[in-house]
Amino acid sequence: MIEKHHIDALTALLGDKGVVTRQKDMEAYETGARYDSGRAGAVLRPATTAEASAAVGYCVRNGLALIPQSGNTGLVSGSTPDETGSEVILSLDRLTRQFEIDTDNRSVRLDAGFRLSDLNRRLEDHDLFFPIDLGADPRIGGMIATNTGGSRFLKYGDVRRNTLGLKIVLADEAGTVLDLGCSLRKNNTGVDWKQIFIGTSGAFGIVTECVLNLERLPKQTATAFLVPSGGAQVLPLLKAMEERLGAYLSAFEGMSKNAIAAAFAHVPSLKNPFQGGNIPDYVILAEISRSWAPREGEQSLDAVLESVLAEIWEMEDAPLADAFIGPPHETWALRHALSEGVKHLGRLIAFDLSFRRGDIMVFCDHMKAEMPAQFPGVTICDFGHIGDGGVHFNLVVEKYSPLLAEPGFEQRLREWVFSVAVEQYGGSFSAEHAIGRRNQAYYDFYTPEKLKEMAAGLKPITSPGKLGSVRFG
Asked: Which string of DSSP letters, residue by residue, matches 37-73?
């Protein structure tokens, strides 16, 4: 519980709209996207960097713990408070005033509270977009804090690659504003300080403004569902397409049979393109794109894709068993329905893993073979960004399964999956969801002591106050 005199002081700094204390009004901020919730003492909603600085400085001087919250779409309990009611949420949802497009520099300077959809909607008229494609609709500050990747990482990279500058509020007694808002793409004048705040879950400071790189909006796209000859043929198929398509290849997304079936069950309106409606064991969604409008005499991308797939079919030991070229809006509709479909099957225990590209299908095939013996009653519904080695390794347990009543079941399952992924296959336990309370124990276990010591050393230098749900020490 936050004492009334603190609420009064914060209201004086932020105004009535800037402080939320009624329980029913705080519920949306206290509840996360997946199974995580807590109780906040208050929700702070600054509308400017200056207001954020004033509020953060006040909280640090008075020992109030802060939980930065962007769009609250994260899946690792990183943006919700604990159960004590003593933590204050600082939401970015009113930080939506500044928006300045520089078409010459192909960049945008904006407040961190804009949602990804809002950003791209405003950029459309300029034939530009921020090239991070996600199933959720997060706010930009959270995307920076967690370094999101998405479905088109293969072509455009992650948020880190597309961030030019930041403005940060540090959790110190002054609420120091650190201006790293450079719009330059080349600036080797010392330490690139903005990188400390990208992908570190808000532990070292709160992103309030940013400068982002933009890309030309694709004017031509072609997509296909590809059925590889087997799990071992996924990587040869990817390499064959990269060799023939180069920079045209913008996505190479893997989807398991179980995940696709869950999407069809949850969204009956989805079109099933597979012969007889029979879903293959594994399917790739491949996309190619161009940033210019069709030119007279130029081969269409559908024709390019057909030609490339014909070449691959004629390879010795061809890695491709079947292919279905279809409209991009239909193919992506299926891909974007996977998360919700899987979530509705039962109790979801999700992992965000990454591997060397050559190991990802080896890992998936290994787990499909071992899971029935290790954890019978657990169904694998995996899908992911095969082109960059990422996989959303989703495990589902039926809603009323006795497994869920077993003490320590979920922890044993998580520890087994992480041990195989990290220790056996050299993978990462967090590809793009960052850490959060849900992954804290695995950060503590798998991170070398010297690296934890170095990260812990940054905390008192940047934000000595109580900031965020992650401990880097």
From this structure: B--EEEEE--SSHHHHHHHHHHHHHTT-EEEEESSS-
148 Rama class: left (phi>0) / alpha (psi -120 to 50) / beta: beta
| Tokens standing for residue 227 | 């059925």
Range 107-127 burial, b when 16+ CB lie within 10 A, else e? bbbbbbbbbbebbbeebeeee
State CA 320 to chain mean position distance: 30
- Per-residue CA distances from 356 to 245, 353, 364, 375, 446 (Å): 21, 11, 13, 26, 18
β 390-397/99-102 pair status: unpaired
Condensed to tens digits (0 to 9), the pLDDT of residues 89-109 reads 999 999 999 999 999 999 999
Q: By three-state DSSP, how is residue 107 classified?
A: strand
Question: What is the per-residue pLDDT across 334-368, written as a single tens digit (0 to 9) for each?
Answer: 999 999 999 999 999 999 999 999 999 999 999 99
Q: What does the DSSP 8-state code read for residue 404?
A: G
The bridge status of strand 40-44 relative to strand 19-20 is: antiparallel
- The predicted model scores a pTM of 0.93
Identify residue 236 by its one-letter amino acid code: P
How does DSSP assign 12-27, residue by residue? HHH-GGGEE--HHHHH
Enumerate the β-bridge partners of residue 230.
none
User: In 313-471, which ranges are E strands?
Assistant: 320-326, 347-354, 378-380, 383-384, 390-397
**Rg of the chain, C-alpha, whole Å:** 23
Decide if 238 contacts 272 (C-beta within 8 A).
no
- Give yes or no for a contact between 409 and 403, defined as CB atoms under 8 angstroms apart: yes
Q: Where are the beta strands (DSSP E) in 160-205?
A: 163-169, 177-180
pLDDT of residue 473: 64
Quote the CA–CA distance of 55 and 13 in Å, as a whole number.
7
- CB-CB contact of 128 with 120 (8 Å): no
**Residue 120 contacts residue 216 (beta carbons within 8 Å):** no
